[in-house]
Amino acid sequence: MPLVRIDHSDARTNPTEIATAIHDAIVSVYGIPERDRFQVITSRPATTIIAEDAGLGFERTDPVIIQIFTQRGRATDQKQRLYAAIADALEPVGVAPQDVFIGYVENGAEDWSFGFGRAQYLTGELTVPGA
């Protein structure tokens, strides 16, 4: 049940394909249900996205910034597989691997409400992933 925020330049004309590729990678690596999909897609002027190389020595051409908010508990190697799967899935839809930037944020069951003002993981309406 990750919440995924996707920011890209308005030069990209295929935001749905980008979002679907990211979701498919998450489903594949994390084994979440297909309909467990929560994404916010924002297209913005390229001048409003600054994503340099952090000293790694490469140039980005048209970055796609991905923020993944999810519950803690996944192993480091699983996260690394996810990053690779996302980059691999985005390349066929026109996003170069060097243009994929991912920020991963973890939290707990108490940090989610899916509606009705209730924390469904705490009330038992939803099962905590991996529990």
TrEMBL record:
<dbReference type="InterPro" id="IPR014347">
    <property type="entry name" value="Tautomerase/MIF_sf"/>
</dbReference>
<dbReference type="InterPro" id="IPR037479">
    <property type="entry name" value="Tauto_MSAD"/>
</dbReference>
<dbReference type="Pfam" id="PF14552">
    <property type="entry name" value="Tautomerase_2"/>
</dbReference>
<protein>
    <submittedName>
        <fullName>Tautomerase family protein</fullName>
    </submittedName>
</protein>
